[in-house]
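A quick aside before the break. I want you to see a complete sequence-to-structure record at least once, exactly as it would be stored in a machine-readable document. Don't worry about memorizing anything.
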Amino acid sequence: MVVEIVRPSSDYSNPWTFGNWTNIDDNVEQPAIGDRAVSACLRVDEMGWNDANETYQCNMQNLDYSAEPNSVTQIKVWINARRLNTTQPSVNIYVNGGNQSSKIGTIGTSYSWSYYTWGGLTLDGVDDLRVLITAPNFGDEEEIDVDVVYAEITYTIFIPTGPEGIEKVYGVDSSAIEKKYGTNWSDITKIYGIT
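That is the input. The structure line, written in tokens, reads:
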């Protein structure tokens, strides 16, 4: 299993009061903290209230790997944020053309990390991943400040045996190996540690 981190790359939709994807792209992972300055956060507060839920959506970086069938098994989103005098937001992901099931936030009243996991996935890769944070209807003196967002993608790498496995792992031309070791791929894969 491999876990790779992806970070925000742009806004997909941003009706929140101020800030954008660059404010939540701090290059840290939990338990480290971001800058947490109010001016450097993504915020929704009563100034942006229009008597409706407000959903912020950010595009995430694409995974830089060759997709294998059913290789992505889990996506975990980490959020460092705080909420003041409001109910929990909801968090969701959009991936490969569709939304997953929404999660109720666990954001505290002071800055802290929370995470949301979508497991049991069988995705052939991760394209068009977005994180959605939906703030509830707001009244006076209510706000949510988001400091950091990132996602952990868990996937498996399928390593075939024989010449394909050696070429994939070592980048070696299998025909050159055959010239050196012959064509007994059972022995050759043991030499290279691929069984």
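Two observations worth writing down. The radius of gyration is 22 Å. The helical segments are 162-170, 174-181, 185-191. We'll return to this after the break.
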